[in-house]
Design brief:
There is one protein chain. With 221 residues, the chain is an alpha/beta fold. It has 2 domains: 147 residues, HAD superfamily/HAD-like (Rossmann fold); 63 residues, Orthogonal Bundle (DNA polymerase, domain 1). The protein has 11 helices and 10 strands. The strands form 3 sheets. The protein has a 6-stranded parallel beta sheet with strand order 6-5-2-7-8-9, with helices on both faces. A two-stranded parallel ribbon has the order 1-10. Helix 9 links the parallel strand 7 and strand 8. Helix 1 packs across helix 5 and helix 3 packs across helix 5. The longest helix is centred in the first third of the chain and has 15 residues.
Length: 221
């Protein structure tokens, strides 16, 4: 099979956002006088969108209060807008993207990060136009692992689901790819383990971006 489109998760797949995300949530927690969490803990708090991230990090009583969760999420998002000190693409990502673009492969991003933050990171860290669709968390559309948004992207690219390679670093991403009928490609430079990725359906595992073209064929080859 030669794949005709590539869709990427953002956090932990294209960019290393762990430290800035963790420090933003911890700053929010500190502002309320709540306990903070270790950097390592955030590897498992992330992946299901801002609301779930806040629910996982708040004390139990506040996490069960929907209105408080919403307030805390807005406070976190406002803080996060000013935390980009450590966020950057992973080594080897840009050359991989350049080669896919040279082959004429349309590329997009599907992330559970809120849309504004996703757009700002993509616009600030990648060449203009390299991703033709960026689908973040937006009103009226379900978050991953629901396949609706990535399937909308495949349709926009004019390709069948089985012709899409989907890249991610968590179980949520592999579940998304499986649910959509895409090729699930698990990456090991992100937040989770190879065992988790394989358990959730990964068909290809990449330890480094430069391994991609030895393991997956694309239509431009």
């Amino acid at each position: 099979m030669k794949y005709k489109a590539a869709i990427f998760d953002l956090d932990g797949t294209l960019v290393d956002t762990l430290e800035d995300l963790a420090s933003s949530v911890n700053e929010m927690l500190t502002s309320y006088g709540f306990p903070t969490h270790s950097l390592e803990a955030y590897r498992y708090y992330l992946g299901n969108g801002s609301k779930k991230l806040i629910e996982r990090t708040l004390p139990q009583e506040q996490a069960q209060d929907a209105s408080f969760v919403l307030e805390a999420m807005k406070r976190y998002q406002a803080i996060y807008e000013h935390h980009r000190d450590h966020t950057r693409p992973f080594p080897g990502i840009q050359p991989m993207l350049d080669e896919l673009k040279a082959k004429g492969i349309p590329m997009g991003v599907c992330t559970n990060k809120h849309q504004q933050a996703a757009d700002e990171i993509i616009d600030g860290m990648f060449p203009s136009g390299i991703f033709t669709i960026v689908m973040g968390d937006r009103p009226g559309l379900p978050i991953k692992p629901d396949p609706k948004k990535p399937l909308m992207m495949a349709e926009a690219y004019g390709v069948n689901p089985e012709e899409v390679a989907y890249f991610g670093d968590t179980s949520v991403d592999m579940d998304t790819a499986v649910n959509a009928g895409f090729l699930p490609i698990g990456v090991l430079w992100g937040f989770r383990t190879e065992e988790e990725l394989l358990a959730h359906g990964a068909k290809v595992i990449l330890a480094k971006p430069e391994e991609l073209f030895g393991k997956v064929e694309f239509a431009g080859e």
